[in-house]
């Protein structure tokens, strides 16, 4: 039974509370006057002077303690409880490897954040950070590749650590080039022993495969045998660009920007995924938003209700009151009448 006005508390055995009206009844019976005397002695009042009374004024206090013990004893028997309820979330998270191109061309500044030009890698890291924050139940890792691959962050559930490791996604960490096949193979290898219900590679690149010993198609077939889905994203704008060198303040022309859309589409088809083109920050955010919706994690919510027993508190009060009543009865109130001298 929920206590009215206190939804966080309940009485497990409310029938015991029916005994509470007996307490004031006992108090009334003790305070009631007895029957009238059959014979009156006009000089009986003289007997009161023969000695001190055996009971003092503490007798009423002791009876009050007994009633208090009875009240709290009944409350303890009714088993008051505090209700502790909470939501339990069970999530079957998926494994996602963000596979990012860090070749020098990713430094081309053809994206804008807040009206200021930024390079492709900065824009990609900005969008990936938002994507990571939204995937609370998934294991996410990062593989970076240029002419070779390296691992900025293995698969983890630690979102803060993962976002901090985005700083390790930099150009010029390995030899220049675009080894798309090696990037896919490295990401697939990192998920090989994962037992997640779904495994996904999100490949982001701004160029065509020109390095590595494994072709993107062969790497995609290898990933597909492991049950890994592949989404490919071509980032950047076509045309003639130059790569800025912040350390020297110079620009290196790269000529006509080319995207191997055919290969990226083929890789996505082999990996049972999709190909996307992102030429600005908004479209890149939309791409990751689409992937986020496509790769949903199954989350189940269960309401768990637990109770905390509160009966020890009224039981302790009842025991203390009864102990004090017995102590007073056996000490202060346990005295015989004292005779007066004649």
Textual characterization of the structure:
This protein has 342 residues and is of the alpha/beta class. The protein has 9 helices and 14 strands. The chain has a 6-stranded mixed beta sheet, sandwiched between helices. A 4-stranded antiparallel beta sheet has the order 1-2-3-14. Helix 6 (216-225) links the parallel strand 9 (199-205) and strand 10 (228-235). The protein is rod-shaped.
SSE topology sketch:
Elements: E1 2-3, E2 6-11, H1 22-31, H2 58-77, E3 80-92, E4 95-101, E5 111-113, E6 116-118, H3 120-134, E7 139-145, E8 149-156, H4 159-164, H5 180-190, E9 199-205, H6 216-225, E10 228-235, E11 239-245, E12 250-257, H7 261-270, E13 275-278, H8 281-294, E14 298-309, H9 312-330
Parallel strand pairs: 4-7, 4-9, 9-10, 10-13
Antiparallel strand pairs: 1-2, 2-3, 3-14, 5-6, 7-8, 11-12
In the sheet with the most strands, the strands line up as 8-7-4-9-10-13
Number of helices: 9
Q: Largest sheet, described in full? A: 6 strands, mixed
Q: Give the ordered list of helices and strands.
A: EEHHEEEEHEEHHEHEEEHEHEH
Poorly predicted segments: 52-56
Q: What is the assembly state of the chains in this entry?
A: single chain
Rounded to the nearest angstrom, the radius of gyration is 41 Å
Q: DSSP strand (E) fraction?
A: 25-35%
Derived structural class: alpha/beta
| Helix percent band | 25-40%
- DSSP strand tally: 14
Distance from first to last alpha carbon: 67 Å
Mean pLDDT: 82
Globally, the shape reads rod-shaped
């Amino acid at each position: 039974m929920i206590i009215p006005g206190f939804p966080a508390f309940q009485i497990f055995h409310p029938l015991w509370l029916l005994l509470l009206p007996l307490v004031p009844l006992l108090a009334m019976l003790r305070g009631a006057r007895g029957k009238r005397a059959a014979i009156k002695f006009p000089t009986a009042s003289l007997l009161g002077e023969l000695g001190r009374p055996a009971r003092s004024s503490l007798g009423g206090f002791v009876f009050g303690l007994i009633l208090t013990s009875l009240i709290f004893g009944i409350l303890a028997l009714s088993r008051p409880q505090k209700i502790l309820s909470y939501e339990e979330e069970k999530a079957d998270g998926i494994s996602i490897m963000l596979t990012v191109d860090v070749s020098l061309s990713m430094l081309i500044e053809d994206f804008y954040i807040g009206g200021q030009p930024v390079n492709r890698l900065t824009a990609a890291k900005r969008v990936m950070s938002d994507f990571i924050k939204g995937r609370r139940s998934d294991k996410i890792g990062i593989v970076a590749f240029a002419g070779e691959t390296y691992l900025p962050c293995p698969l983890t559930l630690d979102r803060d650590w993962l976002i901090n490791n985005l700083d390790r996604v930099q150009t010029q960490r390995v030899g220049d080039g675009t080894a798309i096949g090696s990037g896919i193979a490295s990401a697939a290898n990192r998920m090989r022993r994962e037992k997640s219900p779904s495994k996904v590679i999100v490949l982001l690149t701004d160029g065509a495969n020109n390095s590595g010993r494994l072709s993107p198609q062969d790497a995609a077939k290898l990933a597909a045998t492991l049950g890994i889905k592949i989404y490919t994203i071509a980032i950047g704008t076509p045309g003639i660009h130059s790569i800025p060198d912040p350390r020297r303040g110079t620009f290196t022309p790269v000529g006509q920007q080319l995207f191997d859309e055919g290969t990226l589409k083929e890789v996505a088809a082999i990996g049972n995924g999709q190909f996307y083109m992102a030429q600005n920050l908004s479209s890149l955010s939309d791409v990751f938003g689409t992937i986020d919706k496509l790769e949903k994690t199954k989350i189940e919510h269960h309401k768990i209700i637990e109770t905390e027993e509160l009966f020890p508190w009224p039981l302790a009060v009842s025991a203390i009151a009864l102990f004090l009543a017995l102590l007073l009865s056996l000490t202060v109130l346990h005295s015989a009448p004292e005779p007066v001298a004649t």
